[in-house]
Amino acid sequence: MSTADLTTTARIRDAAIDVFGENGFQVGVRAIATAAGVSPGLVNHHFGSKEGLRAACDERVLEIIRVEKSKAIDAPGPTGMINALAEIEVYAPVVAYMLRSFQAGGALAESLLEHMIDDAEKYTQHAVATGRIKPSRDPAARARYLVLCNVGAMNLYIQMRQQREGKLNYRKVIRDLAEETTFPALELYTQGMLTDPTMLDAFLEERKWPTEPPNR
């Protein structure tokens, strides 16, 4: 594939992420082609079908999340988090796309979610290895919980705003969500919430799990 083909493919894919996020997956290939400045035939040429295009969009969305999470984890001190918050509006198309995907449901939505969870386990375990996050007795379960909490909260927040406001400015919505949730999330993750380990100890004993998490 030539450099021009790669550039056209990326332009169509990125336009599709924007259009799908704004209008949902019922939108036709023609609208995506118009947004990308190409012919509908060229969309099919590069992606084979609308389903093929959506799969490519999923892959790109996962890549963006993976890269940005890794940057935040690897940055020294709080730099990564502060930079991510400062630039959070740039993720509006990704957030809108994910919302539409989970609203639509089906195999592609389930696949996107499972890939997000798999990636979350990898970058949280990387953070454990570098001493940024405490180890877990069940890293896969922790990653699933974190993704479900974050995705669920995001979807509920945005859907409630849609019901109240109609057409949304996603850049503003994700900024508002970040402003409302960053402090309580950091406090909870850093300091915890329960004053004693009684409930955890009882759960671990009932499940016959180790009382201490594994070493890093």
Brief descriptors of the model:
216 residues, mainly alpha, 10 helices, 77% helix, 0% strand, HTH_TetR, DNA-binding, DNA-binding transcription factor activity, TetR family transcriptional regulator
Brief synopsis:
It is built from ten helices and no strands. With 216 residues, the chain is mostly helical. The model has no long low-confidence stretch (mean pLDDT 86).
Could you describe the 3D structure shown?
The protein is mainly α. The protein is built from ten helices and no strands.
Total number of strands = 0
Helix count equals 10
The unreliable regions are none
Major beta-sheet overview: none
Helix and strand content put the structural class at mainly alpha
Rg for CA atoms = 20 Å
Helical content class: over 70%
Beta-strand portion reads under 5%
Cα(first) to Cα(last) distance is 44 Å
What is the N-to-C succession of helices and strands? HHHHHHHHHH
Mean residue pLDDT: 86
What overall geometry do the principal axes of the alpha carbons give?
elongated
